[in-house]
Amino acid sequence: MTIDVTARACLTCGTDQPHRPSLGGRLRRCLGCGLGWTVPDPAEPSARYDLDYFTGGGYEDYFLAAPRRFEAGRRLRWLSSVVGPSVLVEAGCAGGYFLEAAQGAGFTVTGVEVSRAAAGFAVDRLGMPVRQGYFEQVAPSLRADVVCAFHVLEHVDDPRVFLRAARGVLAPGGWLALEVPNIASAAASRLGHDWPGLQPQYHPWHFTPQSLTRLLAATGFEVVRMDTAVFRYYMPLGYRLRHARRLLPGDLLDLRSPRLTHPRRGDLLRAIARRPRDTRSG
Ligand SMILES: [Zn+2]
Question: Which pTM does this prediction carry?
């Protein structure tokens, strides 16, 4: 399933769409839709999303309860503005805190998580029903009204394969909720290599509002809602206030506003899309 990211083709736009080097050649960017992809660096083997992903590399805080529960609550409130309690599958559920929040709100939940450490934590510590494995492989055995994938699509081998698998899980009219880093954000433009959302060693794909919209359309989804949030959005209020002097100037510079969300220029791109009701399965 591994695809050649050095190939001269945008995943969404096809073979004849020109693209250009970006960030000193570390990425390619499609001139048609803005999709970016990481060019493998032979000197720095990619540390891909694998069985041991959550056991190192700056993700030690992944299992800390308070910030993860705050983040889960934010995501649940956003999702609940569109979808009521129903059957929900989360691809890449990590330690299971979003599943825990969704179950508490009345959803029937199942998680799929490739990391053994994270899946084990979700099952043993939070009591969540989580299947360890790759979502694309587990998906044919799942059915749901909602599929969520927060910070997953930028990690997968082929986002089209992932999205088609998600579509196959959903009933007609079912919902897909995604969040990915936004390489079209003001902060990404300003900070370049130093933008925390970049992580080219972990992220083969780099999305923009336009490229994600096209990719969703190409895989059988209609975008219902799309906007962006700054990193501060997921920080509890007390933390934001204590660290305002460090956190606020960049966002004010980038968005000219202290607001935590923005139509398209924030760090994190989130979308709710729908599998149309009036099409055949496939
Ligand atoms: Zn493209």
Answer: 0.90
In a domain, 25, yes or no: no
Question: In this structure, how many other beta carbons lie within 10 angstroms of the beta carbon of residue 260?
Answer: 18
- In which domain, by residue range, is 176 found? 30-38+46-274
**Residue at 12 is within a domain:** no
Structural domain count, the chain: 1
Residue 136 within any structural domain of the chain: yes
| Confidence check: pLDDT of 273 > 60 | yes
Determine the distance from the C-alpha atom of residue 20 to the mean position of all C-alpha atoms in its chain, rounded to a whole number. 24
CA of 130 to the centre of ligand 1 (A): 34
Ligand 1: distance of its center to the CA of 172 in Å? 27
- The CATH code of the domain that includes 221 is 3.40.50.150
Q: Are 1 and 164 in contact (CB under 8 A)?
A: no
CA 11 to ligand 1 center in whole angstroms: 6
Distance CA 63, CA 66 (A): 9
pLDDT band at 14 (very low <50, low <70, confident <90, very high): confident
CA of 22 to the centre of ligand 1 (A): 14
Using the mean position of ligand 1's atoms as its centre, give its distance from the Cα of residue 15 in Å.
Answer: 9
Q: One-letter amino acid identity for 241?
A: L
